[in-house]
């Protein structure tokens, strides 16, 4: 990858040298050099991201497996809690209709 960046910089410099009529100020040359370095860095970054996307690391996969286990546990606990709430409401509703007289005595 560094060789690609160096080749890009060499090509850039060669195209500049072919223009014998125009000379660049030191500031313009510095800006062009920075652009060439930026191009090399972006090419390196692009290749690294391509490698990462093609070959997911084992650490990421292990982390995702752990997260999947925790998520399924939370989902199971949530279902159990909802079932418990619904069951308690049904018991209260059935108990309330059978024991209305008891509730009225307690309110007075």
Automatic annotation (TrEMBL):
The keyword Cytoplasm applies. It holds the Pfam family DASH_Dad3. Residues 1-27 are annotated as: Disordered. GO terms for molecular function: microtubule plus-end binding. Its main location: nucleus. GO terms for biological process: attachment of spindle microtubules to kinetochore; cell division. Coiled coil: none annotated. Keywords: Cell cycle, Cell division, Centromere, Chromosome, Chromosome partition, Cytoplasm, Cytoskeleton, Kinetochore, Microtubule, Mitosis, Nucleus. InterPro entries: DASH_Dad3 (IPR013965). It is found in: Chromosome, Centromere, Kinetochore; Cytoplasm, Cytoskeleton, Spindle; Nucleus. One of its GO terms (cellular component) is DASH complex. PANTHER family: DASH COMPLEX SUBUNIT DAD3. Belongs to the DASH complex DAD3 family. This is DASH complex subunit DAD3. It comes from Alternaria arborescens.
């Amino acid at each position: 990858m560094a060789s690609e960046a160096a080749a890009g910089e060499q090509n850039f410099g060669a195209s500049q040298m072919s223009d014998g009529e125009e000379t660049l100020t030191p500031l313009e040359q510095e800006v062009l050099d920075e652009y060439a370095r930026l191009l090399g860095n972006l090419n390196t970054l692009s290749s690294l991201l391509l490698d990462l996307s093609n070959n997911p690391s084992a650490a990421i996969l292990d982390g995702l497996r752990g997260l999947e286990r925790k998520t399924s546990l939370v989902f199971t606990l949530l279902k159990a809690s909802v079932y418990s709430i619904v069951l308690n409401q049904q018991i209260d509703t059935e108990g309330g209709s059978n024991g209305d007289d008891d509730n009225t005595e307690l309110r007075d």
